[in-house]
């Protein structure tokens, strides 16, 4: 899982990464290990330190692609309101 996510991070250089779904929501899923492996497999020039990783749960309104779009829209509206 870390390899697949790191590949996308290295290619797309996102500001925010949403991770969710059944496996990640399982009790006892090793999130700390996943984060460690992501750090090891992500190019350091990408700015992994600035990458915000959000784990969304089954009931989270920001779950899935639709939820990521909602989060981005709400985040952008909040930025515009500050201007």
Question: What characteristics describe this protein?
Answer:
alpha+beta, two-stranded parallel sheet, 54% helix
N-to-C CA distance: 38 Å
Using the 3D structure, state the CATH architecture.
2-Layer Sandwich
Helix content: 40-55%
Query: Which segments are poorly predicted (pLDDT under 50) over 5 or more consecutive residues?
Result: none
What form results from the Cα inertia axes?
globular
CA gyration radius, whole angstroms: 14 Å
Tell me briefly what this model is.
This protein has helices spanning 2-12, 22-25, 31-41, 64-82; strands spanning 16-20, 52-56. It is of the alpha+beta class and 83 residues long.
Can you offer a commentary on this structure?
This protein is α+β, with helices and mostly antiparallel strands and 83 residues long. It has a single domain (2-82), classed as 2-Layer Sandwich (Nucleotidyltransferase, domain 5). Helix content is 54%, strand content 12%. It is built from four helices and two strands, in the order H-E-H-H-E-H. The chain has helices at 2-12, 22-25, 31-41, 64-82; strands at 16-20, 52-56. A two-stranded parallel ribbon has the order 1-2. Helix 1 packs across helix 3. The longest helix has 19 residues, at 64-82. The chain starts with a helix and ends with a helix.
């Amino acid at each position: 899982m870390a390899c697949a996510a790191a590949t996308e991070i290295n290619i797309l250089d996102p500001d925010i990464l949403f991770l969710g779904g059944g496996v990640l929501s399982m009790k006892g899923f090793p999130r700390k290990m996943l984060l460690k492996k992501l750090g090891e497999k992500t190019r350091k020039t990408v700015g992994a330190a600035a990458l915000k990783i959000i784990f969304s749960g089954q009931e989270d309104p920001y779950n899935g692609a639709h939820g990521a779009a909602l989060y981005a829209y709400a985040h952008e509206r909040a930025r515009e309101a500050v201007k």
